[in-house]
Amino acid sequence: MIPELLKKYQAELENLKRNSILISENGLEMLSPDPLDLKTSKYLGHPFIPLAMEYPRDTHGKVLIPTVQINFAEVPKPNPYPGKGILQIFLSQDFNFGKEDCLVQYIPEEQLELPHIKDFSFLKDDFYSNNPFKQVYKLEFSQSNIWASATDSHYTFGCDEFDGLTIEEYMWELMDEDEDAYDEFQEFFSDGMGSKLGGYGHFVHGDAREIISGIKDYELLLQIDGSDESVYNGEQDVYLHLFIAKEDLARADFSRVRIDWEVSD
Question: Which residue segments constitute the domains of the chain, with CATH numbers given?
Fold first, then answer.
């Protein structure tokens, strides 16, 4: 619902809506074995890896942990993503939230019928001790329109009522002056939360595109929202953001995807 204070701006707010693919995470309460098909969208479990490819390893030769797999054939249309093909994220056994601890790769459609690895007995349970994901999740997808996000740098709404303040700054003032209005703003401008493909994102410590050089215009490719409890690190929530240039997404080139991790305070 649009906050009462902003209803006169409904047309402007409508124009800023973005399509997004929401991710539903259904936990299987297991780490191994993986009962899901190798091509299924999932967290953890076993990935689809053609025999013609080398299984991913870090710079020390240690095998990486398959952590996120998204099969674009399972994602509802229309969307800007490839019609088929699988996006995968692997994390280091020594994962510590560094960019070097994370590998993103894409298996294109033409490779999905090739002979593939079937025996994953080399993935030992103790390899997962540093992984923020703690069990296998099957992923499902649904279409949604994202209205707004107070923390996404690509969200451009402003109005006279804000008096030059950012949305977050104005909400801080509302917290002290009008609790009901604050609650309306909090609900509306938290639309960027949740695990998703595309749309507006939610950021705990600020949008990384404002900080990392050269990616200011990149689009949100993937957000994994640790407040959903799918990703957990002790007593902190863990958030993963992947960003991609529009032209790279259009040609299904995921080689320049940028990665940002956030851990709640």
Answer: 4-263 (2.30.320.10)
CB 105 within 8 A of CB 76: no
Nearest to 44 by CA among 19, 69, 21: 69
103-125 pLDDT tens trace = 999 999 999 999 999 999 999 99
Could you report the per-residue pLDDT of 182-238, keeping only the tens digit for each?
999 999 999 899 999 999 999 999 999 999 999 999 999 999 998 767 676 566 788
What are the structure tokens assigned to 34, written together?
């993986």
